Amino acid sequence: MKRFLLLPAASFGLIHLALSSSARADDLEIARDGASRYEIVVAANASQAAREGAAELRRLMRVVAGVELSVAADATEGRRQIVVGAHPRAAAAGVSAAGLKADGFRMRTVEGNVYLLGEDRDLGHFFWINNNESSHGGSYFAVIEFAERFLGARWYLPGPLGEEAPPRARIAVPSNLDVTQEPRFAHRYLDVVTSKTHESLKKLQTQGVVDGDYFDAASAAEATRWGRRLRLGNNSNLNVQHSWYWWVPAEKPNSWTPRAYGKEHPEYFALRNGQRAARYRGAGGAHGGQLCVSNPDVARTYAENVIAYAKRTKTRSFSLSANDGGEHCECAHCRAWDLEKDGNGEPILTDRLMRFANAVAERVTVEVPDATFGVYAYHETRAPPRTVRLHPAITVSDVYNYLPSLFLHPASRALMEADLRGWRTQSEKVVLTSYYLGEGFWSLPWSTLEIQGWLMNLLREYPSSLGVRMNYAGPGDLPPMGMLGADPWVLSRLLWNPNQSVEALAREYYLGAFGPAAGPLLQEYFATSGRALAREAAKRPLEGRHAGSSVFGAPMIEAAYSSVREPCASLIRRATAAVSEREERYRWRVDRVARGWRFVELTLDAIEAARTAGKTTGSGRKGAWEKAIRLGQERRALAASPESRFALAPYSMDLMDKAVPLGLVTEMPIGGELLLRAPRMDAAPVVDGRLDEPAWNRAAESSSFRENARGGAAAVKTQVKIFACAEGLAVAFECEEPRMHALKAAKDAATLWSGDVVELFLVTGGGMDSFSQFAVNPNGLARAVAHRGDRGADLDWKPAWKYAARKSTDGWCAEILIAWKSLGCDGPPPGETVWPADFFRERSTDAQELSGWSPTGGPFALPLRFGRLQFSP
After folding, report:
1. pTM greater than 0.90
2. What pLDDT is attached to residue 325?
3. Last residue within a domain, chosen from 182, 207, 238
4. Checking CA distances to 371, which of 74, 103, 605, 686 falls within 20 to 30 Å?
5. Residue 45: domain span
6. How far apart are CA 124 and CA 408, in angstroms?
7. Based on the structure, what is the number of domains in the chain?
């Protein structure tokens, strides 16, 4: 792969003067041999940044120089001062933060005193950085720069053992020190080191989003403190999230808007298949319910509600982004605002939605002139607009999820680069957002420094680039250094000053964090595993702007890590041995990385053991499953262990295991004990949804459907029937529904899964990663998907099958007949043949429920948790 070199630091215009810290005769001696003439001065009314900076400096002087500097609100006669933050003495010396951008700072010596101050603004908790803002920390960052230059301090990993602050007998600074720095990017957000509190995790647990207590309050505090030591911050005043449902709600009022519009004004909402879609789907109500943006009353209503809220709360930053999940308006007026289509023939909606965003912004700023707005460039709007130039109060956040996958495929990289450049050319303010590795890549190690170097090299070209919102893992995760290696540390340096060499920064990190013996070994370990992952990701088919997730899965994981298992294991063993006699901090840091590799080994072994168990029959079956379960449980226990904090990302592991299962197990699959025996009939049914042939009375049947996530009783009855005949496999679903008046069902096959639907899954070949999926909804619409292992899902599969649906007053039924040739057979399978199979229902009324015959506890497509379908002779 091509190496990306950035410009040398000397060309960075915001660093006005960089002086060597080597000893000179006229240096100011701050401390020598445990003694000092200096004190720290910080004003009584100092900013949070100054107070935290003074405390950090005092601690570091004690650790590095062995001196305990006193802290005073004003100078003590007979002593010299290190003044932190704004202070009358700094002003008298001609040192101030005047003219500095947010988070900028100055370090200056005047008449033997040292002044460390910057642009500060208190917005609350100093160490908290959220998606929208953070306290300005110039004075704190001045202390961090001072500590790095003159005390030799570094913070390679979070926590006390991640700090490198070796003792020094002498601390000195140049007598003519005069340095000014400002960050190149205002928005410097890395999810794994910002917005972490113990309370935020507890909230996720209460909501059922995460299962374990993955970090404690102390660990959360160390993560956020590390983020500030890396000089992260957010000063772009960006508020961007899916938010149309806030300002023009369809179903019920909310805390932003005191009325709902769906019943009174259905014309405000998207026209879909001839009907207004004034309803939401999914948890949280953020999906669907899109607006008919060409209706001028919609922009007026949206703006009026924003204005009212702004006046009521003094809020000045608002999101204009569409709800998640697509399904935008198909009316002729909205379609007339669209100018082009993507490679799949679908309209690109950028001009339409940005035209609407402008209309709202123009109305709001008349009455709230200081209002600012954020809008996503995402999915249907990722391509820059052709005719619309955005209102100057709007900041764009262009979204590139699974970014390494997009980069590693030339066609997708070209599209991504064109979009990156296009938005930054035509917009005044742009912040990149990326769920970089999806939802945390199962907590498996993948360092991609060269890709991030390419990205930062591009972003720095454009004055409109305000920075990055980088999401490496999940909101319930601490910094997983065994997964990411040098990446967060290097990216933080580039976000402050992008004119640096990625290679030089990486070398500094590995040598500084792990020492001269282990450092090069671990750098090679991350490079080796990264190259393997890049090779495998590049092999997987990927098309267009949005398909980055399609390369992620068990085939990629197994192929990549298995190909380098021996060399990576050897590098980890050698690095561990290299620090076995060194200080605790080096052993702890290497152990973070070693735990990451142990997690890989357990993942590979657990996948293989589960695959073997799924194929094992007879007396060996129980033992095979016990081995697979033990390995799966060991893997999960390793990630969730308190000893693995700052090593792994257990929240991401949980999330990805459910969203993109790797096929491993942690408990005996329920489906292994469920069995339906499909009898053989002579005649095929007439597929009309009536189920009135005698054969259906003799079919195998089960109504043992349970709630899919937790296995509880389903709220309504669903019964499946099945038999084999010469023509194919006949399947029927009978769905009880006491609320037929509220039934929600898609009216086009493209959005089939946006409403009530039943599904059949069949594993008809030898491997558990290849299977067929058939889905039918109450309107008689259907989709079939062929899951083909490492080739991905074929969404355009056209099997030979028949289907029909029929509604009644108290439910609905679906009838299916699948030709044997579409299941890989010439005719009915021989008697006693067993196929893994499962049956599901997605109930969608004013209530929603996912139920299954063999509940999987996650996505439906988990073949190892399917039941069994046995054919009678």
Report:
1. no
2. 82
3. 182
4. 103
5. 9-182
6. 41
7. 2
